Amino acid sequence: MAKDWAAALENARAREQAGQIAAAVAAYRDLLARWPDCAPGWFHLGAVLYAQDRRREAIEAWREAIRQAPDLAEAYVNLSIATLGEGDVAAAAAAAETALRCRPGWMPAQAALAKARRRQGEDQLAAGNALYAEGRFAAAAACYRAALAMAPAMAEAEANLCAALQATGDLAGAIAAGEAALRLAPGFAEAAANLGNAKLTIGDFAGAERAYRQALAHRADFPAAWSNLGAALRDQGRLDEAEAACRAALALSPHSAAAHYNLALVLLTAGRYREGWAEHEWRWRTGTMAPRDFPCPPWRGEGLAGRRILLHAEQGLGDTLQFVRYVPLIAAMGADVVLEVQAPLKRLLAEVAGVAAIHACGEALPACDYHAPLMSLPHRLGTELATVPAQIPYLPRPAPLFPGLADAREGLRVGLVWAGDPRPGEPRAHFADRRRSLPLAAFAPLAEIPGIRLVSLQKGAAATETPPPGLELEAALDSVRDFADTAAVIMGLDLVISVDTSVAHLAGGLGKPVWLLSRFDGCWRWLAGRDDSPWYPTLRLYRQTAPGAWAAVITRVTADLGALACGQACPAQTGLVSAPALV
C-alpha cells in the first residue's frame, strides 16, 4: 500500500531535489526492490536517469511505471520525449497519443504529439526527396502527402509536393500545393519559385511572373528565380526585361545552363542570332537533352575537304526539316555528309542536295571524322538574320500525290493542320501543345468560303475529330507512309494552313505557300513583331495577340482566304497566284 512506501519515496525525492543524484538513484532502486509495484518510484527514477543522459534506462523505468499505472499521463509524455530523442518516432507518437487519451486536451501531451508528428513528417519528407532525386515523382508525391498528413503545417512538404506533381503532369494539384506552402510561409522563396514553374507550364505567364517576383522579394540572390522570370517575360513578349532577368541570373551563377539557355531563347526571338546561337549551345548542359556519344570528335569549324562528317537530328521532326538546309553548305566545304534523321524523314531527306549517305536514328553508322547536331550548324557557320540560307525549295519536291483528290472538281486546294502532338508524358510539351493546337470546330467559319476545298493533313488522335456542320474535309493522309508521301500530297495543294507543327516546316521547305497560326508565346524561330519569316519566304504568320485568343486569328485567316478564293489581292498571299491551278 502507498503508506508502506511513501516515506521511502519522500526520502528519495529529497535526495534528488538536493542534487544528490547518485544517492537518489540508489534510494529509488532500494525502494523499487522492496515495492516493485510503486509507479511513482519508477516514474521519478526515470526522470533522474534521463537527467544523467541515461536515456535507455529512463525509458525502461517509465515503461515500468506505465505497466503499474496505465493511466499515468506524465509517464507517457516523458516516454514520448525520450523515444523521440532515440529516433523511435512511431513509439514517440504512440506514447503521446495515449497521454492525450488519458488526459484529453492536456497541453504537454499535445506538444509532445506535435513534435513526434513533425519528426514523422520530416522522415517522410526526406524519403520523398530521395525518391524525387531518383526520378520517381509519383512515389515522392505520396511521401510528401504522408508528411502533410502527419504535420499539416509543414510548408517544405507542400513546396516539394508542388514540384513532384508538376513532374507527374498534375499541374492543378501542383498549383494548389504551391499556394498552400505560401499560405503557411509567405516568405518561402523556394515555394514561390515552384509555384511560378507550375504556372509557367500551364501558360499563366503573368501568374508565373508574380510568383517569381515574390520569390525574389524574399531572396534576391536566387538565380533560378531570375532565370525563370526571364522565361515568363519572354513568353509575354517583354524581351528587354527578359534579357535583364536572365543576365541577373548569370551574374549570380555564371555557369547556370538553364539561365544561358533561357537567354538564348530571348536573343533568338529578338533576332540577335550571333550571340543567340552561342548561348543556344548551353542546351546540352541543361539536363533535358543528353549529348550524343560518338567515336569521332565534334566539329568546331575545322576544314572539311576530304573529310566525312556526321550531321544528326537532335530534337523534333520540324527542327530537322528546318535545319537540314545546312547540308548543302557543309557539302560545299568538301565534306562527305552522312545524315542521321528520324525514320519518318529518311526517304524524303535522302534526296537533299549534298547527302552522301543517310541513316535512320538507331541504325549502324559508318566511321566519320567529325559529327555535329543539325541545330548547331547556324552557330558554327555564323548565321545572322541577314544571312539565313533561305533558298527554296531546299527539300526535294516529289510528283504531286492526290489520294482522295483525283476528281476534277475545281477549287483552291487548302491543306489544314489544326493540332500538334499532345505528348501527355511530357508536361511542359503537353501544355505547350494545348496552347498551339485548336479544336477542328474553331475552323467553322471557313465553311462559309466558296471556292475552296479543305484537305486534312492532320495526323494522330485529332484527325478523328468530327468537323463542324458545313465544314467539308477531304482525307489525304490515309495511305501516307512517311514524310515523302506527305510532301507529295502537299505538292498537290495550293496552300497549307497549319499550327506550329512539322507540316509547316515541310511546306515551307518545299516552297509551298503556308499560313502558320502561332500561339501568343510563339516559338523563338518565328521572331517577334513580324508576319513573315526569314527561314521560309513563302510563309505568313498569323499570331495571337493575347494568350488563347484564337478567334481573332481565325477571323483574319477567313477573310484572307475568302479574298484569295475569289481572286482578290490579300496581304497574306505569300506568292500564291489568284487562279486555283496547282503548282
Short recap of the structure:
This protein has 24 helices and 10 strands. It has about 575 residues and is an alpha/beta fold.
Evaluate the radius of gyration.
35 Å
Beta-strand residue percentage: 5-15%
Note the overall shape: elongated
The CATH architecture of the domain at 412-565 comes to 3-Layer(aba) Sandwich
Low-confidence stretches: 571-583
CATH homologous superfamily identity of the domain at 412-565:
Glycogen Phosphorylase B
| DSSP strand count | 10
Strand count, sense and barrel status of the largest sheet are: 6 strands, parallel
Overall pLDDT confidence: 92
Describe this structure in words.
- The longest helix is centred in the first third of the chain and has 27 residues, at about 105-135.
- The chain is built from 24 helices and 10 strands.
- Helix 10 packs antiparallel against helix 11, helix 11 (about 190-200) packs antiparallel against helix 12 and helix 13 (about 225-235) runs antiparallel to helix 14 (about 240-250).
- The protein has a 6-stranded parallel beta sheet, sandwiched between helices. A 4-stranded parallel beta sheet has the order 3-2-1-4.
- Helix 21 links the parallel strand 5 (about 410-415) and strand 6.
- The protein has helices spanning about 1-15, 20-35, 40-50, 55-70, 75-85, 90-100, 105-135, 135-150, 155-170, 170-185, 190-200, 205-220, 225-235, 240-250, 255-270, 275-280, 315-325, 325-330, 345-350, 375-380, 425-435, 485-490, 500-510, 550-565; strands spanning about 310, 335-340, 355-360, 370-375, 410-415, 450-455, 475, 495-500, 515-520, 540-545.
- Among the domains are: about 220-290, Serine Threonine Protein Phosphatase 5, Tetratricopeptide repeat (Alpha Horseshoe), CATH 1.25.40; about 310-385; about 410-565, Rossmann fold (3-Layer(aba) Sandwich), CATH 3.40.50.2000.
- The protein has about 575 residues and is α/β, with parallel strands linked by helices.
